[in-house]
Design goal:
Largest sheet: none
Radius of gyration: 17 Å
Mean pLDDT: 87
Low-confidence stretches: none
Structural class: mainly alpha
Order of helices and strands: HHHHHHHH
Number of strands: 0
Helix content: 55-70%
Length: 142
């Protein structure tokens, strides 16, 4: 796995919005009884988020979802407060992220906020989006 991942270039990884390591689920977790969010509820949340995005971009031709935003729209719809900016700055410096990764994090954070029906992007949305950049983390590839 590490040998395969080491062949993927940084610029290619920058073009992938979300990359996370998925570890095997232990048997105990598979068999435990828990109250998880139902698939129907998750589907409804996703539909609402897509509706929010469709409404957000209704006046723009060829833009329907957050993933399609360019830099100008990212700055408009992903405005951050000082706490969120500092969090993102720290991540950019510590993970040595590119400008492309910066934009990807903001678009993913905007989508996370939409899934919560939040009109603004908050630091918890930024933090979650940063967590989805696992292949950018130093040492992941060995």
């Amino acid at each position: 796995m590490i040998r395969y991942l080491s062949k993927i270039s940084g610029p290619l990884l920058d073009r992938i919005d979300i990359h996370i390591e998925v570890t095997p689920v232990p048997f105990e977790k598979l068999t435990e009884i828990r109250n998880a969010e139902s698939s129907v509820a998750i589907r409804q949340r996703v539909i609402r988020a897509r509706d929010i995005q469709t409404a957000r971009f209704e006046s723009l031709e060829h833009i329907h979802y957050n993933a399609q935003m360019g830099t100008k729209l990212i700055r408009e719809f992903c405005a951050l407060n000082e706490t969120s900016l500092q969090l993102l700055k720290t991540a950019m410096e510590r993970l040595n992220l590119s400008a492309r990764a910066f934009d990807r994090i903001l678009k993913v954070a905007r989508t996370i906020a939409d899934l919560e029906a939040s009109p603004t992007v908050h630091s918890n949305h930024i933090a979650e989006a940063i967590q989805y950049r696992s292949l950018d983390r130093e040492g992941w590839l060995g």
